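Weekly structure sync, notes
Attendees: PL (lead), two postdocs, one rotation student
Agenda item 3: pending single-chain targets
PL asked that the sequence for the first pending target be pasted directly into the notes so everyone works from the same version. It is reproduced below exactly as submitted, 237 residues in total.
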Amino acid sequence: MALVEVRGVTKTFKKGEHEITPLKEVSLDVEKGDFVSLMGASGSGKSTLLNLIAGIDRPTAGQVFVYGEDITRLSRTKLAYWRAANAGYIFQTHNLIPVLTAWENVEMPLLLLPLSSAERRKRVGIVLEAVGLTDRAHHYPRQLSGGQEQRVGIARAIVANPTVVVADEPTGDLDGETTEQVLELLVRLNQELGTTLLMVTHDPHAAGIARRKLRLEKGKLIEPEPVLRAAIAAGGN
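Predicted structure, written out during the meeting:
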């Protein structure tokens, strides 16, 4: 059984009098410890698929299983608890709370879990060390560079030791050097900690660091042939 099983998922949105269907009967298996990148044109449903897997949204039809549990059947309250314990989300724009320090931002997801303050301190310390920000623990977002803010966001995403981490354009707002640092960190998390990662990106170079590369085209999921994979990794279309 795969860690994540997406089965015949369709997602439809209303836009005025029109219906938009970015995902149409999409199925996907993601194994534990895998690193999957997802590319596609704007509006192809990449972020929508991430949100469904992370339990942020629900499909119009179909099912999403994580560790065998159908999260599409959970109540709103149970889904909120499931997300806190099982899903980590890395945003493009960091989404840090400006009045909280790096430490406090990372600790936020743990406040929803039944953990002692000592256990929270331990976990926050470990992940801040993992992303190389121990010396910035008590700095506020305005005192951090863009790359440091993103690393705080990554630490926050992994602090609860989630089942799966999804990343939506994690390098979209970063310069070239900082992008490389963040990509290297994601690879290290996957290889050294066994973190299961799904990453949406428009950047072929970023997509190339993943073990498995997928594309969404017209609501359908496509796994490129080996020759095309090489072209994507090299920066081709």
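Discussion points:
- DSSP finds eight helices and ten strands in the chain.
- The helical segments are 46-53, 76-86, 102-107, 117-130, 146-158, 176-193, 204-207, 226-233.
Action: rotation student to compare against the earlier draft before next sync.
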